[in-house]
Every structure is written in structure tokens, then in C-alpha cells.
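stage 2 :: seqdesign
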């Protein structure tokens, strides 16, 4: 029987998957929300849904983030839908470097040509983007996958000004915003730009459960309207309607915020366990949010690491082919409890070249 995507490999502590820790999935709370949604909405919870998503959910999103929203089957689906709406095969799109590696096939499936935007340790450097027309720019500016970093405020402002000047559309993947462990998350590009030239995509995959397949697009009312007119939506109605009304109940009842507090405490503890086990041996930043450490170790350690019972994703996967990342690895602290993360770090460090050789 195969039910889930993750495949446990006996003897391996896997820091490769950006998946939630199973014990942190809100099975009991979701079941309460589901029963309540069925009680409140009755048969309306089970029929075809309103094209943009049920208003109890889109209104909750608007109250939290401002603007107009379209409910999707997750952030990946949001990116695929926007790609189908805004591009044609052969168009160029700019991507951050490094960036979320699984966005690449979503974009190339649509026949797009990917080009890295100029970036340094702080992220995209708008002063170095050539003004060549791209259909859009994709980036994860807040608690990024894979670096855990956030684009500094001045860069955010400069990027928005560049986009405005050049008529460049920015797709801001804001999947990790609510997983903040220190202070508050920086303002979204979308919010800073007042929705002008920026489209924001979000997800409940990391903050509630990936299996919901539920996320959203924050956009102008006219873009939301165009999304509702897609043949796919016209034919099938609002995306994941029954799950979306349950999410509306989960959100408006306060269960979402209660759950977030629990998640932030747990993932902060997991982050700290991994960071403190690595720090005596390797320089590592402790991200203020998200799920990932971007560690300066060579990706070609992977086969030896797996023989010694630990796995990760080599850094070059987060760049376009041949463009870098060989000296970095991505470790996810989301899946395993603190003690397992400490043990994983111990296994990894045993294999790491001494500091002077790096
Ligand atoms: C930056 C980023 N965007 C999107 C996704 C996928 O989101 P979803 O499960 O909502 O499709 C992930 C998951 O790893 C991610 O890290």
C-alpha cells in the first residue's frame, strides 16, 4: 500500500524532505473543524464551490493580508495557474539563485526558459537585473527555501521600484511567512507594492497540512477575475471546495492561530537543536523563520552521508544547472524531533572535512 509521498529509509535520518513532523499535524483539531463545517454549511460544503474560493475563507485571507484572493490547491498549483495565465511557451522567466528547486519543473513544464536573476548573499540584487523583458520574476523573499534568509528591506524596496519602472511582474512565494520564530516577518513585497506588479502566493501546506492541497493567490481584483474564468475553474468550480470551507472554519474559530503558536514553539526548538549540534563544527546561520539551514558543506558528501545514516539535499539542486551551490547543502529541521536532529548532525559532522580544508 502506498499512501504518502515520503518514503522512510531504514537507518537514515533524513534531513532532505521539507515535510512537517507527523506529530505536529493537527488531526484532532482538523476533525473538529470538518464536523463544524459540515454542520454550518450542510450540503453546500459538498457541492461545486464558488470560483474564487468560498467567501468565508477569502474574507479571512483579506482581513489578514488585505486585497483580493483566489483559493488554489497549494502554492505549487498557484504557480502553475499563474504560469498558464501569464506566459506562453518560449517566454523567459527570471528566478532567484538559489531558489525553491521544485519550482523549476513547474516552469519548464510550461515551456518556459529559465534565467537566474543576479543575486548575492542577501538575495536578488535589483540594481544588476538587466531590463530584458521577462514574463515574470519568481522568488521566495521571506524565510526562503533553501537559505532560510529574508530579502533585506532596502532590496525589497529597490526590487519593487525596478518592477514598477520596467513593468516586470513579480511572483512572490510567501509560503513560510507564518512560520516565524524571532520577532515578526518582514512586510511582503505584495503589501509594500500595494499589489502593483506583485502577485503573492501562499500555502496552508506548512502551517496546517500538506495533504489539504490548499493555498491561495493574492492579486488585483482583475487578475482574480481572470483566474475565475480559466476553463479549469469554470468546469470544476472553486478549487478543493470542501477542504476550503473546512479551512475557513479552522481559521475563523481561532484554531489556526492556536496551532501556529504550537508550531512556532516546536519548530523553533527543532531549529535550535540542529543549529547547536552543528555550530561547534561548521558555521551556520540560525534562520528567523521557515524550515531550512543552508550549510557550507560540499554536496558531494551525500553518498558517504547516506552510508552513515543521514541524508540532505545538495545545494546545486537549488540553482539552474551548472550555476553553483556545490559548496552548500540544505538541511531541513521540520521532519524530525530534536533528539533525532542532534544525532543527524553528529553523523554528518563526522564526515565533514576539517574547517581549514573548506
Ligand atoms: C518555497 C515553496 N513553495 C512552494 C512549496 C510547495 O507548496 P504546496 O505544498 O502548497 O504546493 C514549497 C514546499 O516545499 C516551498 O518550499
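stage 2 :: out
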Amino acid at each position: 500500500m502506498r499512501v504518502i509521498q515520503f518514503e522512510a529509509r531504514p537507518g537514515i535520518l533524513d534531513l532532505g524532505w521539507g515535510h512537517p513532523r507527523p506529530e505536529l499535524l493537527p488531526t484532532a483539531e482538523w476533525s473538529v473543524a470538518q464536523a463544524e463545517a459540515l454542520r454550518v454549511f450542510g450540503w453546500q460544503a459538498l457541492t461545486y464551490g464558488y470560483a474564487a474560493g468560498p467567501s468565508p475563507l477569502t474574507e479571512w485571507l483579506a482581513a489578514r493580508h488585505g486585497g483580493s484572493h483566489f483559493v488554489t490547491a497549494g502554492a505549487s498549483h498557484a504557480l502553475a495557474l499563474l504560469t498558464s495565465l501569464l506566459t506562453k511557451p518560449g517566454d523567459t522567466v527570471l528566478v532567484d539563485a538559489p531558489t525553491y528547486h521544485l519550482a523549476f519543473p513547474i516552469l519548464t513544464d510550461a515551456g518556459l526558459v529559465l534565467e537566474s536573476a543576479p543575486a548575492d548573499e542577501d538575495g536578488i540584487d535589483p540594481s544588476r537585473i538587466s531590463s530584458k523583458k521577462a514574463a515574470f520574476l519568481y522568488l521566495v523573499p521571506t524565510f526562503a527555501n533553501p537559505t532560510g534568509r529574508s530579502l533585506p528591506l532596502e532590496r525589497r524596496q529597490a526590487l519593487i521600484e525596478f518592477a514598477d519602472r520596467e513593468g516586470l511582474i513579480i511572483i512572490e512565494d510567501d509560503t513560510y511567512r507564518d512560520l516565524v520564530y524571532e520577532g515578526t516577518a518582514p512586510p511582503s513585497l505584495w503589501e509594500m507594492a500595494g499589489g502593483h506588479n506583485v502577485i503573492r502566493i501562499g500555502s496552508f501546506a506548512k502551517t496546517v497540512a500538506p495533504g489539504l492541497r490548499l493555498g491561495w493567490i493574492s492579486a488585483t481584483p482583475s487578475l482574480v477575475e481572470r483566474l475565475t474564468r480559466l476553463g479549469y475553474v469554470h468546469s470544476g468550480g472553486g478549487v478543493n471546495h470542501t477542504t476550503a470551507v473546512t479551512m475557513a472554519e479552522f481559521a475563523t474559530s481561532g484554531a489556526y492561530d492556536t496551532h501556529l503558536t504550537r508550531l512556532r514553539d516546536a519548530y523553533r526548538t527543532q531549529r535550535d537543536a540542529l543549529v547547536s549540534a552543528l555550530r561547534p563544527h561548521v558555521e551556520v546561520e540560525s534562520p528567523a523563520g521557515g524550515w531550512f539551514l543552508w550549510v557550507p558543506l560540499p554536496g558531494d558528501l551525500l553518498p558517504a552521508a547516506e552510508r552513515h545514516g543521514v541524508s540532505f539535499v545538495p545545494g546545486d539542486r537549488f540553482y539552474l544547472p551548472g550555476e553553483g551551490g556545490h559548496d552548500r547543502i540544505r538541511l531541513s529541521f521540520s521532519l524530525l524531533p530534536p533528539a533525532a536532529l542532534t544525532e543527524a548532525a553528529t553523523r554528518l559532522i563526522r564526515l565533514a572535512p576539517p574547517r581549514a580544508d573548506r
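stage 3 :: structure notes
- The chain has a mean pLDDT of 96.
- Residues 13-18+256-357 form a domain with the Aspartate Aminotransferase, domain 1 fold (CATH 3.90.1150.10).
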